[in-house]
Amino acid sequence: MSNRQPILQQYYTRGRQGVFRSNEGYDTVAKTPGLDNQFIKKTLHPFCVYDAPRQLQERAESNLALFPEALVSFQAESGEMVLGRSVFVGADFTGQRNTFFSHNYVIPADRRDEFIKNPGKIFGVRTFADRHDDAAGKELPAVDDIPSEKGLSQDRKQLLGQMGVDERLFKQLLFAMMSSLAAKKKVFISLDVDISASSKSAVQLLEILYSCLPYEMRRHFGFLTFSNEPQSKKHIHVTFVEKGSIRPGGGHSDKDFLFDFSLGRVQNVDLQAGGHEYLDFAWEYVNEQRILDAFHEFCEEVLAGADHALALNIRTYYELCALYLIEKGRTSVYESKRAGVWQALNSYLGHGSLTRKKRLIELQEMLMRIEVEALSSKQLPDGETIKQMIESYRVTRQERLQMDLIRFLMDVLMKAKTARQSSYVAEVYKHLSSNRELFGFMMRTIFGYPQLVKPLFEDYMTERVAAVTSLDQMLKEIRFWTETEPQAMRNAVFIATTTEKVLRLFARERQKLAAAITIHQFFENIDGARSYADELLDELDKSLMKLVALDTLSKDDFQVLIALLEEKPQSFFGTLDMESRQKQEMLMNLAKLHEERSTPHPAEFFRKWDREAISVQQRMIQNMLSKPLHADEFPQVPLVFYREDHFGQEGFQFAELLEYVQQNGGEAVTLSFIQWTMSQRMFFEGKYLLPAYRQALKAFFLEEKGKRLRDKEWRKRWYAIRNADFRKLLDEVRSETANPLVKLFRHKATVISSAVVLLGAGAWGGYLVWGDTSTHVQPPETQPEPPRPPAVFVPVYRLMMDEPDIQPVRDVLGKRSQDASTGGQPVQTTTP
């Protein structure tokens, strides 16, 4: 008993009742019990249809034999293959209406290859029913197989010629059928034959074309051998239609593939001349089904595991056909398009989903042998072929093949160099270097043959380095070699060439220190090249010391440069030239200043330096001072403004120093700075401020008429600085900037005080004298006059005070009267 799933059946026509309806009408009238009802309704019923030819209807043709059969086949979405036929059967059971009869076989998905690989089992079926007896019931048996006749036996090219199909039209038809699967276009064909013979001709033509379709395309292909009008149907790709029905607005799309044989017209099939390997192959072997089947089996093997996009693309079969022909020994196909063949081969070898690549690998070995033989005859492969051969290294994992390829490429380079084909050599290296794995493998092989190192490594490397135009590119070039072939780091020519290039490019950099740090950081991340890196970096740092402008360094730059130098061994400094060594000593001098945070006297600090070196260090210090200025940086400020005149006299630019502190710190920082200077011996001669510094301070406080001392709060702060000479300086500034009257008073205080005392004493004496005379000496016969109030004297210094204590006249007189009446004794009074 067979274990195969059975083939199910279904009948459809107009009857008294059906499987799904109890009254008369079109319906499934019988089916195999195992056939799903929903499958029948949704999948089979849309294809149970027959529209009689228009010309037979118009003449009321009654001869049923003249009506063409409609053979249909398609692949259901659930995987089954449907093979059916609809025929015109004349009057129905009522005898009043014409009807048709459809018989469909439903072939299980796992058995469809039995049919698609043997087109005779599709096109040779002669067991389709054209009627059903209601008395037989509504059940049909499942069948193990569908009997069929042998396929076409006569010469197919001759048969095609009888239908008017020449080579070009054959290729157009086959191209349209193959393209329709991926392009979502329909193919409509109208044969130039009598309507009664149209179905037979359609089946014959379709069987020939179908046998040329690759198996995977057949698994998705659907056809209908007769329809009275072009109609787009789901699952159907090729439809044969009644002659004269292909016309504008005839139910087809303007983009569909249209073949009207009667008019000799083909539309929307743009078949360019040449380059159609598979179409040429199919036409060549259309009469040799065995060869066509062998190619289809080759495609099955290569495309095992492929997705639909690859397996349904006509270009796929063009490429596989070329590979198949080469495999079979037709090397002319390879010689006509070497690069294209390698590219196609690489695409399939590199396709991750393909699971069976044995024949492709064998083909690759064959192509390699062909190229080696050609090279032995001094025939160099073209650049594009080289590119594709190099690409093959990535897709094949056969070590022997990879090694053969390496040797081949080395031989190509040597022969090309011998022939002085420099541009060709450059192109080969370009393709090689794009494949790091292959390039590294080749370079490792080259280093194993000392005689090859110069021509195949050093010459090429030198040309690459010469083409570099920027430091960034140069670092990438070094990284390329360290990652590709670390042995290059030990090659003397490589070391000398790259070091020289790095130094030359470094010299062109505007930001020298930043560039040097970039290079240092680059080599910190490079593994396996320590010796090479140390040697290069030593040369770089020598160049840096020679080229760097110290007086342009920022504080951060200075710290970075110091850190860089501190990592150097003592032997490094012995290799510096005189100028660089002096720069290094100046850097160390300032580094010591920052490290010790002391307050050196400028004369001591700059003792060993000439004027130019002092100036450079001063600019360096100034560049590193913070803005705003910090208190811990005060000791460095005097160093910036220290000057030595031509006669060796030491001094400071005190005015500029104070201005700098004020501009870069503000009033509060300036106060702190001046307070700090009061504790530094460099600003004093004994107990007194240096005259130049005192003069600068005085000018500083005299600015804007002593503005700094007019504010009461700030005056307190300035006077809080504990230094007698400084406070005396502040007094001088206050005196020189005071109000003229106050200034007069302050400067003449003693003189005025004495004058006031004398005037006061004289006035009092006069008063006493005049007072005695008025009491004891009176003119005769004259009445005594009432006493006058004494004149009130207000000292000048009281007028100059902000609130002079001037008593009202009446109070003074009242007091004087009381004193007189009491004999000069004080009397208690109450002020109203």
UniProtKB/TrEMBL annotation:
Residues 7-145 form the GTPase-associated protein 1 N-terminal domain. It comes from the Bacteria. This is Glycosyltransferase. Pfam families: GAP1-M, GAP1-N2. Residues 808-832 are annotated as: Disordered. It comes from Brevibacillus formosus. Residues 160-261 form the GTPase-associated protein 1 middle domain. InterPro entries: GAP1-M, GAP1-N2. The lineage of its organism: Bacteria, Bacillati, Bacillota, Bacilli, Bacillales. Residues 819-832 have a biased composition (Polar residues).
